[in-house]
# Entry
Amino acid sequence: MMRTVLSATLAAALLAVPAGAAAPPAVDYAAERAEIGRYQDANQRLQDIGFRLARANAAFCPKVIPSIGLQVQDMASYGGPDIARAALGLTRDFAVNSAAAGSPAALSGAFTRNREIVRLEGFDPNEWTARPPMAWERTTRAHDHIDAMLTEHGGIAIAFADGTEVRLAPVEVCATRFDLYAGEDRAFANGARVIFGLESPAYAYDEPVFAALVAHELAHNVLGHDAWLDRVGRKPKNVRRIEREADRLVPWLLANAGYDPSAGAAFMRQWGKAHDAGLKLRVTHDGWDERADNMAAEVPQVASLMAAEGRADWAKHFRREIDPAGGALPKRTR
# Structure
């Protein structure tokens, strides 16, 4: 799902003009392109890191899906579809949003940003009904259709407005989508998706440190935390357990993706000093310094496994804080 809020100029252009009132200012299409570009740059970073983590840890995830690393965009999901379409030079609504680095889509060289799409394996998504503005349903439908084709047929043919067509075969990744929201500064996970806010302070961090936050949210999904909380209840003590467990898995996920596993603790120290919400947050989370220590404590085991086996098999070696099929496990010491 992609929800985009464009600039004040775009929003003003959408307002109805009363009879006799002055005409709205002309749309600054260069400014609109820049605003869309800022969103897409941030989204590309999220997709690149998310795909890298999900691909590298697929061997250990309880559920995997086929993926080509492609994210599409629909002009109907923008605040001003006509303006967004004109700003990007499109005649239809669907185009490439991102192709994650290292993915089949990126490696093909065909999926350049904003390239117009006219067919997804037998269907033209531009013909699907939409109710713009801010209509995200077609984007979700398109991604669901891509996933279905990859699962059922082992590949998908995608056609572009210039008449060319590309067929791609997928690779396996951990079953999670990565989405970026404008007008949001949080990062969270819901079991199927990792959602980042465009205004997240983590975007200012170096890649391995930023990746640690992506890994934390991915950890929630691959460890089944949302479903577990649905079963046992979302009491603060239960949330605290799953947050601690997600923190501890971060070095494992990072190492398998080729990042320094100590970047998890580095993230927590960098983020915690500036953004820890104090006692309110500590009802459901350990203090940032304790969280950093918990992450750092996993690194020696991760490093040992990487040296001995070339991978950190967390499905086999990671100590759980919870029983994913039942309640909480008793507290254990190392």
User: Anything to note?
Assistant: The radius of gyration is 22 Å. The first strand starts at residue 64 and ends at 67. The beta strands are 64-67, 70-74, 94-99, 117-120, 156-160, 165-168, 171-174, 177-181, 187-189, 193-197.
